Amino acid sequence: MDRIKDLQTRRLMEILRRFGRADWRNFETGGLKPSEIRILFAVQSGCAEQPEGVTVSEISSFLQISSPTVTPLIKSLEAQGLVHRYNDQEDRRVVRVRLTEEGSRFTKKARESRLRRFQELKDFLGEERSKEFIDTLEMVYQFMERKHVKPEKE
Predict the structure, then answer these.
(1) pLDDT in the model for residue 50
(2) Residue 98: enclosing H or E segment and its boundaries?
(3) In 3D, which of 75, 94, 85, 84 has the Cα closest to residue 36?
(4) pTM confidence score
C-alpha cells in the first residue's frame, strides 16, 4: 500500500472513512432498515401530490431504484402495518400504496428526530461554522458531480 505523504490528504481520507462508519443518518428507526424508511418517506411525499396513493413504479422512479427492489420492502412495511397496498379503482392492474395512520405517525416522528439531529449539529457548530460547513459540503458535492458523473449517451 502506498504511503500517503501529504498530511491533509491522509486526514481527509481518515475523516471520510470515519463518516462512512458512523451511522449519522440514523434516527429513531423503530427497528426499520434505512431502505424501508426511505420507502416510507417516498410514499409520504408521493401521496402529498396524489392522495389516492402512489404506484411501485413511481416510488422506484423517485428513489432511483428498480421496482423489484421496492416490492419486497413494501410487503415488509405492509406486514408491519405501516403501509396499505390496494388495487387502483380505475385500473385494477395498478397497485397503489398509502401510509397507514401508524405509518404517518412513524414518518412524522422520524422527520422530527432527523430535524432535531441537524438542529443539534447546527447549534454545536454555531452559525458561522455551520454556514462554512454547508458551503464546503456544496463544493465537495460539485467536485464529485464533475469528477464522477458519466456523460449522457447521445
Answers:
(1) 83
(2) strand 95-99
(3) 75
(4) 0.74
CA distance 149 to 152: 9
Say if CB 4 and CB 13 are below 8 A apart: yes
Q: 29-148 in CATH: which number?
A: 1.10.10.10
Per-residue pLDDT tens for 49-75?
888 899 999 999 999 999 899 999 999
Percent of the chain whose predicted confidence (pLDDT) is above 70: 88
93 φψ region: left (φ > 0), alpha (ψ -120 to 50), beta (else): alpha
Q: What is the mean pLDDT of residues 81-101?
A: 91
Residue type, 107: T
The cell for 57 is: 413504479
User: What cell was used for 146?
Assistant: 464533475
Query: If you write DSSP's letter for every residue of 26-87 in order, what string do you get?
Result: ----TT--HHHHHHHHHHHHHHHH-TT-EEHHHHHHHHT--HHHHHHHHHHHHHTTSEEEEE
Continuous segment of H or E residues that includes residue 97: strand 95-99
Are 56 and 62 in contact by the 8 Å Cβ rule? The answer is no
